[in-house]
Request: fold
Amino acid sequence: MSGKEALDPERIPRHIAIIMDGNGRWATSRGLKRYLGHNKGVEAVREAVEGCVEIGVSYLTVFAFSTENWQRPKSEVDALMSLLVKSLHSEVPTMDRNGVRLSAFGDLDSLPSRARKNLEKAMEQTRHNQRLNFNLALSYSARWEILEAVRKIAEKVEAGMLRPSDISDDILRQNMASWPLPDPELLIRTSGEQRISNFLLWQIAYTELYFTPVLWPDFKRTHLFEAVAEFQRRQRRFGLTDEQIVGQAHLKPARAAIKKTD
Ligand code: IPE
Ligand code: IPE
Ligand code: MG
Reply:
């Protein structure tokens, strides 16, 4: 496994997204109730946040609760919402000390009011921090986000504030719940599942995908460093040919790396 010493500090991804999966399996394989897997998963969140701070990642976004997760048994949903409140209390002071700014996006109005209030308080408390932007996707799904953006844009068109011909990539992004997050360069999913499960569909168009069998509660910062090491071994081409990518610049955003062609 790679340590952070093996990483090229010039090519650390600016934004890492994580689908934190496998809490239930971690617990049931030990004969424990599923919620205990979620509780243990909080330690892995701390590892990921601190790992990102250590190597200088600017944005970390984790999928904490999906729109579809509301359909789980009520007892599990309630346990997850209580865990959110409890974790905000236990984790935010250290995050604040480490220069971490906490944000959240998703259908936040659908959260229980206690969770929403605690979240707002934590966001307010950490909003001046600049070392790492840590984002929780909560009651979130990418199709929900895209539909909401389309609805908002349609309202602006109807109100005469926007012409259909003005609708661009940027306009769509600016109306999305995750705005102004940049696209992630790297998406990690734990637990061996190789699917996106309705996370950041628009934003991951050119993201490098990394799947690991490690269950989320077992995830340590060394696993994060290993994912970044694998990212650094890849050549990102953005639809171009190998020859168009200049030397080592190939892992930087495409615009900076394209050779001028006639
Ligand atoms: C991820 O772990 C946490 C959430 C989806 C909230 P799971 O609860 O999905 O764990 P598995 O996939 O059942 O093992
Ligand atoms: C995705 O995991 C959602 C989160 C990690 C919050 P799920 O466990 O809900 O995804 P599926 O059901 O396996 O696709
Ligand atoms: Mg799962």
